[in-house]
């Protein structure tokens, strides 16, 4: 835990320090979380428990249900913040988003620049920071700016190398800008576009979603938009400081605060950044609560550099992701050579790249998502959403630990391998023995 002195040194004067508070034991862990507003256990997405857990205190595992691991909710990182003795006191702000007009909320911008300098994953000097409602909102702003800066009779093409994040397609087609002469400027998604054309732009996810590959653009770097939301130490080896024209990041995949809905772009060209800000301002900017919450989270992480000690947050995330990938890879590994091989008609396609997702391939003509759901009771995301065939499927590695335990058992049973004991650390982490055989009491939490 970083010292308060370190936090004082790093948090700008305009950002008040959060107080420490003692959280009571949560009787719903590990299968759920107690919600003091509802007065009962909750999972996420409206569910009453995590994954396939059920019961009043989420302590019963339903082996017959289908485990959903197809989304990208980064709830793994909630497990880290549950261990941090800092109370979130962002409060409410009685004005609209602070990023409307001349500047962002300055303490947040300072923390973003300091963070990238500490991690070494992106250059910020000479860049404009554009905030948006999550990386999705920031990408929408990028698409608007691409349309707004096109010539009167120009239709710009956008593409990404498959497999790619499928949401890019709709974001491209939905982009439209209208100039002062009332001319409409639109984009088109075209995977066969001429990469040498000045009207062709490419989205490069770095590392790639879903397979973790580190790609180079097919177009000139000046016409590439880099989606870097996974370029953090918990997901990949940060081996270079990127200095691309447009780079996107998000609170969701970095700190796990998906519900905060905050993302940012580092934009080299000030005029292009101005068009992006014009788009963001249409919805009155980014919530002030969201900016304050992320400023606190980044101040906590930045303080770990000032202390000169362990980088606890990234070590937690990287350790969890590595252990999970190693456990899944072990199910596909040849016991003699250690090389990955096909098991029960399924192959792991990440090629050694750890990250937020496992990318699987079944035999040609086989619906991999349906196969896993039917035979392993594991619901992933099918390849059609990533510009490839149904023989591919994606499983996320950012689930809660108890869900990963369940996933490894199910995959192990289906593939005929040994899931081992890699991720089984929740009993020690949460002290569940406190609650086994005892009456649940004191179900009131919060600061």
From TrEMBL:
Belongs to the alliinase family. Keywords: Pyridoxal phosphate, Signal. It comes from Tetraparma gracilis. Residues 1-16 form the signal peptide. Residues 71-413 form the Alliinase C-terminal domain. Pfam families: Alliinase_C. This is Alliinase C-terminal domain-containing protein.
């Amino acid at each position: 835990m970083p010292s308060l002195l370190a936090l004082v040194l790093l948090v700008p004067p305009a950002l008040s320090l959060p107080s420490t508070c003692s959280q009571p034991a949560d009787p719903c862990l590990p299968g759920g979380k107690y919600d003091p507003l509802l007065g009962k256990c909750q999972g996420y997405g409206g569910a009453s428990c995590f994954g396939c857990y059920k019961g009043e205190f989420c302590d019963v595992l339903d082996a017959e249900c289908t485990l959903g691991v197809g989304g990208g909710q980064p709830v793994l990182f909630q497990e880290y913040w549950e261990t941090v003795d800092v109370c979130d006191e962002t409060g409410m702000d009685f004005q609209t988003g602070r990023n409307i007009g001349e500047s962002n909320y300055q303490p947040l911008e300072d923390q973003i620049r300091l963070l990238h300098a500490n991690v070494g994953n992106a250059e910020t000097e000479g860049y404009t920071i554009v905030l948006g409602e999550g990386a999705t909102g920031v990408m929408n702003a990028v698409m608007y700016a691409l349309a707004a800066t096109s010539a009167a009779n120009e239709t710009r093409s956008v593409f990404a190398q498959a497999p790619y994040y499928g949401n890019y397609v709709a974001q491209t087609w939905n982009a439209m800008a209208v100039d002062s002469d009332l001319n409409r400027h639109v984009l088109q998604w075209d995977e066969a576009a001429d990469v040498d054309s000045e009207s062709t732009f490419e989205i490069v996810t770095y590392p790639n979603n879903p397979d973790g590959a580190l790609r180079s653009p097919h177009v000139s770097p000046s016409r590439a938009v880099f989606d870097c939301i996974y370029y953090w130490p918990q997901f990949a080896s940060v081996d270079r400081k990127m200095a691309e024209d447009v780079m996107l990041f998000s609170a969701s995949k970095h700190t796990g605060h998906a519900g905060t809905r905050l993302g940012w772009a580092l934009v080299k060209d000030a005029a292009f950044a101005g068009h992006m800000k014009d788009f963001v301002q249409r919805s009155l900017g980014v919530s002030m609560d969201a900016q304050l919450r992320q400023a606190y989270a980044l101040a906590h992480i930045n303080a770990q550099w000032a202390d000169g000690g362990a980088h606890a947050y990234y070590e937690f995330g990287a350790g969890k992701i590595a252990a999970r990938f190693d456990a899944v890879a072990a199910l596909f590994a040849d016991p003699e050579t250690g090389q990955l091989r096909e098991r029960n008609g399924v192959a792991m396609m990440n090629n050694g790249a750890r990250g937020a997702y496992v990318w699987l391939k079944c035999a040609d003509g086989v619906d991999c998502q349906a196969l896993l759901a039917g035979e392993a009771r594991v619901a992933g995301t099918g390849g059609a959403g990533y510009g490839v065939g149904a023989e591919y499927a994606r499983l996320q590695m950012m689930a809660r630990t108890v869900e990963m335990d369940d996933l490894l058992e199910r995959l192990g049973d289906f593939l005929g391998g040994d899931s081992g004991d890699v991720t089984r650390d929740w009993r020690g982490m949460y002290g569940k023995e406190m609650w086994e055989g005892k009456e649940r009491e004191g179900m009131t939490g919060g600061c």
